[in-house]
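To close the chapter, one final illustration. This time we ask the reader to focus less on the individual chains and more on the assembly as a whole: which components sit near each other, and how the overall shape emerges from the parts.
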Amino acid sequence: MALIVQKYGGTSVGSIERMRAVADRIAATRAEGDDVVVVLSAMAGETTRLVELASEASKEPNAACCDLLVSTGEQISIALMSMLLADRGIEAVPLLAHQIHIHTDDNHGRARITKIDDDFLRELIGQGRVPVIAGFQGVSSTGAITTFGRGGSDVTAAAVAAALGARTCDIMTDVDGVYTADPRICERACKLSRISYEELLELADGGAKVVHTRAVEIAAAQRLSLRIRSSFSDEEGTWVIPEEDIMESTLISGISANLDEAKVAIRSVPDEVGVVARIFEPLARAGINVDLILQNLADDGRHDLTFTVPKNDLKKALAHAEGAARVVGAGRVEAAGDIAKISVVGIGMRSHAGVAHTMFETLAKDNIAIQMIGTSEIKVSIVIDAKHAELAVRTLHKAFGLEQRADGEVSRA
Amino acid sequence: MALIVQKYGGTSVGSIERMRAVADRIAATRAEGDDVVVVLSAMAGETTRLVELASEASKEPNAACCDLLVSTGEQISIALMSMLLADRGIEAVPLLAHQIHIHTDDNHGRARITKIDDDFLRELIGQGRVPVIAGFQGVSSTGAITTFGRGGSDVTAAAVAAALGARTCDIMTDVDGVYTADPRICERACKLSRISYEELLELADGGAKVVHTRAVEIAAAQRLSLRIRSSFSDEEGTWVIPEEDIMESTLISGISANLDEAKVAIRSVPDEVGVVARIFEPLARAGINVDLILQNLADDGRHDLTFTVPKNDLKKALAHAEGAARVVGAGRVEAAGDIAKISVVGIGMRSHAGVAHTMFETLAKDNIAIQMIGTSEIKVSIVIDAKHAELAVRTLHKAFGLEQRADGEVSRA
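The assembled structure is written out below.
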């Protein structure tokens, strides 16, 4: 008998009919003798409905009020699910964040959990009851409801599972696991049976969003096993586990394409100490996440500075970059939104040279020009023209031998 | 400068457009220098939507889960209203029941308030902020959300106003006050400028539901002034105040028609001690509210027992009555749903004889047969055939001189 945390996403609870299937599934897990803690998202569409009400009410709706508003979505889910479980003879206890003291900081809309008081949860579990927790939300120091941003129910699930020392945290969603590439653009993509936290984080950063990044971070910090599974099938899904538990690591675990970034270039930046810091300082203060940075020395001793930012922040980033360019005496500022960041990720990369080389060679064969390059210990990212994104994923997927996994090589351990 | 509690009902906050008008109104009250505490219902239609979701999920949805579900409606209202107020430069503080400790018993769906901790509210008001409270809900001893039943936001408003010692509690609704009769069936009905708690309770019992009965009871116990006003106009509305503040009371304040009751008759009940108690005991245990009771002695020493129950409970009441009739050896049980209870209410009645007489005489002239009669200190009720209800209201309205108020006699004091 073990303790399992199961998180069901919005499409999994998108209608009463689907909720019934989820309730049956929870009942089946219980029948196998395991203790279950359930974390739910809002019914698909509900959060959007509420956000639209807020936009109708105010151009810049107060963030705390927005949190109070959108958090009702999860409250509705846990109330309905608890009814369905009660009808199946399961003593479900719907729980809001303040009841189990999911404390957060005061950053409404993107709060971070500071503490969970697990005593009450343990008490309920000890009584044979099934806690059904509203995901996505916590309470601030003033007692106001905070939320964790889109997909935040994953964060609740991972934090609760970590606090309770659960055997596993199942992220039940509308895909059946993590793939070597997006199956919609690469039909020979294979489902991974295992992946390390670090690889999944790098893939997510690259655009493969199957689970909230912070849920993976929490799992990694607490060495908690996450499992990404479909709530519509009984397939095993993908285990997200510590790197050392992946016995024989393959070179590359996956390839992702991120089309949500844009490129900003500042021409003719004077080559003085501290100039780059002065350019990025206002961007950092504005909370704009700068990803890849490239600096080319030009003939005149000046250089071109190019960097990527989230497309949503491009307008703000441009304004700050133009301001900074004037201040430091740089030249014109240019922007391009039609770019794609392709990332090749794998913990095996550490001990194998030549991943970048293979990547460049492969893309060169297909005449795909590389605009920027960035690397981490287990990732190589390149920026290319957006129109080549799908071709690049497919050709790299093949070049790194990821297709072979479809022939029984899916398991990595 | 005074403290005013304003409660806005579902139609008053039925759309963002209407909420805007309410926000303007709250801002105007503030501009006059008064402190305001706002209590809101769910947007019109929202509670029904949620109740339907619950019915879809379960034939007998768990009551605590239902409360958790439907209470989201008010949460949405206070979040949106607080945004709108913030846009008008008013520092609104949306508050859920647990934040201001609206403690109740554990009767989900029809909970009663046991305590309100007003310290936090006083603190907020002292800081010049406007508390915006979710109506209709409290928290039980276990911390679960409870609700007060349909119209329960009135109860919240009265309880909060009483706890704070507010100067007045405005019930802002879709009618502009309490009328001498329902204006839809009696076009010469007049709006009352004042009415006593007791009269309003009797009228409400008679079918005139402009405010939740328990809100009036709370106001009466605390001698709190209630005012029933339209949220769509600036008219003064009707003050609900202590009887002694109504200086010169008129005989009759209003006439109501209740078409929501049904009649049950048990024929040939043996005339033995304790028989009636044995018949009503199972009805009481089932929580069925028996209103008028009539007992006719027949020639054979047996009698017919007739009583009224809410139409919704008729099926249950019949089953219990038939069971009881068998047990005590009575005859057949009959039911009639096509009845109307017409009530004539007025505190002046105490000191004036002949109200019942005028009533019977008036109805006799119109050939309306009276089936049952019941009286209280300030009310006479009769049961007639439902098809005569409107005629009876109009003819009694005229007979008691209520029409004259339209000619400048509206004020009672």
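DSSP finds twelve helices and 20 strands in chain B. Residues 169 and 277 of chain B are 41 Å apart (CA to CA). With these observations in hand, you are ready for the problems at the end of the chapter.
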